[in-house]
Amino acid sequence: MKTLLFSCFVLLQFSIFAQDWATYFSDDKLTIDVAKVIYKDKTHGLEHERIVFRYVNKTPQEIHFSFSRIHSYDGIELQSSPEREFEITLLPNETRGYSKSVEKNKLYYIFKKDNNDFIKRKLSSFDVLTIIYL
């Protein structure tokens, strides 16, 4: 019974989360979806909002691509950051996105704002630039 209840809870959580996805970029090979989530780490007293990403390979072939992402916080663009350049390989028809297992991998999220107000800066904009298929 506990397993069934837990499974229903997980499915409900996934359904609620999945409804928040919006398409940010799409072409004949790839879709990049975005959503907003609340990240909580009780051990470290963190609670902040994140913009999260999901990558969808729409082809029956493996795709490998790179892209740049820029962020502005409080209207000021980050000039140099390891968060700017990314590369990913997706298997045929694979969907890969933000989850607990990749919650610290910047490929899958951007910090939006701190709900505890410890970090004062807030994301004002972001953009995915120069998607290059390799």
Describe the model.
The strands form two sheets. Strands 1, 2, 3, 7 and 8 form a five-stranded antiparallel sheet that branches. This protein has one domain (22-133): Immunoglobulin-like, CATH 2.60.40. It is globular. It has 134 residues and is mostly beta strands. A hairpin with a 3-residue loop joins strand 1 (22-26) and strand 2 (30-41). The protein is built from one helix and nine strands.
Runs in which pLDDT lies below 50 for 5 or more consecutive residues are: 1-18
**Judging by the overall fold, what is the CATH architecture?**
Sandwich
Largest sheet: 5 strands, antiparallel
Report the helical percentage: 10-25%
SSE blueprint:
Elements: H1 2-19, E1 22-26, E2 30-41, E3 46-57, E4 63-73, E5 76-77, E6 85-90, E7 95-97, E8 109-114, E9 123-133
Antiparallel strand pairs: 1-2, 2-3, 3-7, 3-8, 4-5, 4-6, 4-9
Task: Summarize it.
With 134 residues, the protein is mostly beta strands.
Output the keywords.
134 residues, mainly beta, Immunoglobulin-like, 4-stranded antiparallel sheet, 9 strands, 51% strand, disordered N terminus
